[in-house]
Description:
By secondary structure, chain A is of the alpha+beta class. Chain A has helices at residues 95-98, 157-161, 166-175, 194-209, 216-223; strands at residues 3-4, 11-12, 17-20, 25-26, 30-33, 36-39, 43-48, 51-56, 68-77, 80-84, 91-94, 118-126, 132-135, 148-151, 178-181, 186-190.
Amino acid sequence: MGKLLVKNKDLVVPGEVLVEGMDYVxxxxxxxxxxxxxxxxxxxxxxxxRLVKLIPLTGxxxxxxxxxxxxxxxxxxxxxxxxxxxxxxxxxxxxxEATNEYIDKKADLSKYYDFGDxxxxxxxxxxxxxxxxxxxxxxxxxxxxxxRVIEVASTKVPRIIGKQGSMITIIKTxxxxxxxxxxxxxxxxQSENPEEERKAIDIxxxxxxxxxxEGLTEKVEKLLK
Amino acid sequence: MSYTKRNDGRKFDETREIKAEVxxxxxxxxxxxxxxxxxxxxxxxxxxxxxxxxxLQNPEKGMLRCNYNMLSFSVDERIRPGPSRxxxxxxxxTERALSPAVDLSTFTNAVVDVFVEIIQADAGTRCAGIxxxxxxxxxxxxPMRDLVAAVSVxxxxxxxxxxxxxxEEDYEGGATDVPIAxxxxxxEISLLxxxxxxxxxxxxxxxxxxxxxxEKIAEIQRKALKEKYKGD
Amino acid sequence: MELISKNYLISLxxxxxxxxxxxxxxxxxxxxxxxxSEHAEGSARVKIGDTEVIAGVKLETGEPYPDSPxxxxxxxxxxxxxxxxxxxxxxxxxxxxxxxxRVVDRGIRESKAIDLKKLCIKEKEKVWMxxxxxxxxxxxxNLQDASALAALAALSKTKIPAYDEETKKADYKxxxxxxxxxxxxxxxxxxxxxxxxxxxxxLEEEKLLDARLTVASIGKVVCALQKGGNGTLSIExxxxxxxxxxxxxxxxxxxxxK
Lengths: 225, 232, 258
């Protein structure tokens, strides 16, 4: 008989045994060892029927297809741009995917995106060895001018965005800031008013800190009043 | 020579007082402090990040790279800043002690850097460093099969003891130091060194009591990690 | 690390506000703690905002320099530890860390903060060498001021070990007299960006500065200067920076003395 040694939402750390026996199936953040299911990172236990996994509380960003990410132009070569998206390998933005217009191979590529430019792009493919390809063709994918990019833990991004973008909409409307959130934990903020910008940053930091507490939306609304 | 009573009043299988804290260096992806008696280690983890030179990159698995260092004023006789033969060797054995616990397949072509600094030394610095580093890796969210706990065991005079302090290491009746690291869930050993003389039977017994001490240390490490994240 | 363009930073400064919400001439909160490492003759930790630096002082016996046979000497070294910033590498000291420790050294040496004659054990033969080692634990900008303050705080708690007549060396089992620290030099770093002058720059600001000036002073007297960055400063700008620097230094000294 399988035995579940933890409950939903229990905080666990690497090496802790969550299940003894074969009745449960390991999901993300856990692994099977012999007849046990063991946590491999710091997270909250989630048991859904027979699936046991962790909601991660820390971790590094791993690129996934269809992720919207914010990055900085790190290098320019013949084929396009190398974008630093905060992953160990630079992501590649090819000439073909850079804009809707045709870019000649002989063109000065820095006229489109120069070193240090900040862009919002979408991941179109990833390979097993950690490289990924980007596109900037699509709504909302462009160069981000005149703002600042703060870093948050990528594990907290879903909370900052909220269900169907509910949280980020609250932040934008209540602070009048322009905000773009990348799945890679980079958040671009721009405002004409430095106090409102400060408010947006403070509230994002608050969500990052309180991410798994109950009633987060209400707390945020109260703080923004 | 009979060692009847430990110089600081501890039981023979008792470690010194331990304090552990996670999240002590803001810039780092993960960090921790581990204090055992008067020995204080801090560790920081950066990565996974780009690995250069490129020929070191491996598409099948990532690299764990450790750097152990003692601050110049952590001991009475000042240490010249910069790497030494000793610190290089300890960096290497630290890497080996931690590697079995880390899932390197999750960051191919990249490196995770672990920096261990000894702020204050009173014996057992490499073990304290490994304990701090293991918590820092978990704090950074590097997937791990288990935490790693480490302690030195050994023989002072005629007695097997856990967690020798400096006075015991220098005991005039002779002392043997055996630093070990343990993956507590299955009790496997990932660091083993020895300095001195012991019989096979004694070594086995020392490893057993060291393993028990490491289980207690792991409990303290888990608690410290949860302390940081429970507010989340 | 935040990403920010120089134009955007300047547009914030035009509105009188810094990246972290500070005013242009506002210093971050400073915290000092002492005796952080017991084998050091004196040690301290200084936090300026999120920047953290520790300093330790060791005393060793050595021979005096021929041109100052009755004086002890000071050696300051600084290390940017790999754990403090993702850009720092382990290995030999970087040129930046050498500059930092030399500027700390000049502040202490040129102000004659330590009465070196009192560190003479036997003229022409034996003197105390004061070895100040500075380690950066977390770099959130302005390591220079944090290092100078940490060195000063560590020196202020330093006690000289007993001198063992037999071995002609220090006996670290016993520490007796206080180090003769007779003056307290403090350093303040200022940055110029566009037409603005800021104090205590953040890491993100440091990367975008046109020029930097570090002012070491005691009371109203300046005892060391170091201009950094690739840009230039006008005489008027320097005068303004000196005045602000001297003021900040008197304020910050109170934190060490407390």
